[in-house]
Amino acid sequence: MTEALILVFFPLLMAYAASSDLFTMTIPNRLALLLVGAFPVMAWLAGLSLEATLLHLAAGVLVLAITFGMFAAGWIGGGDAKLAAASALWLGFGVLFEYLLIAAVAGGFLTLALLAIRRVPLPGFASRWPWLLHLHDQKTGVPYGIALAGAALAVYPSSEIWLSALSG
């Protein structure tokens, strides 16, 4: 049961982050807080050592510092910065580079796809969906949380917490 909790908790929250960003263009603060608050408990349940847990914490802090700078420069949204940092906390240094690379590539494709879609008018039936109208608006940003969540889900099975939970 403990293993199932560890293996499902993070993916469910990532799926929620992606869908929230798609439909509302926001990633709730409570989601990042829940990820950060639950990590120490899940790390303990998975059997991560104190040293490994602290390294995961360092990965999260490093990504927070970088993404906060990106947010301050206006390159990404605050929710994206917090989600990237909270994800890095869970993923740790072992898969951090792969996570960031996949997120960057996926985010680039997502941005290009949205730019292309925004150049053509939406079909009539889509006008009944306010979230789609907002997403189609050229003044609206990119729901980068989708790329972050997808990248996190792609590398999570290779993360130390996942592997530790399965070996316990």
UniProtKB/TrEMBL annotation:
Pfam families for the chain = Peptidase_A24 (PF01478)
Subcellular localization, per the record?
Answer: Cell membrane
Q: Where's the Prepilin type IV endopeptidase peptidase domain? A: 9-112
**Membrane topology reported for the UniProt record:** Multi-pass membrane protein
Q: Please provide, in alphabetical order, the Gene Ontology terms of the cellular component aspect for this entry.
A: plasma membrane
Q: Does the keyword Ribonucleoprotein apply?
A: no
Q: Which UniProt keywords apply?
A: Cell membrane, Membrane, Transmembrane, Transmembrane helix
Name the predominant localization: membrane
Please give the start and end residues of each transmembrane region: 27-47, 54-76, 88-117
Query: Which domain of life does the UniProt lineage start with?
Result: Bacteria
Single GO MF descriptor? aspartic-type endopeptidase activity
Protein name from the UniProt record: Prepilin peptidase CpaA
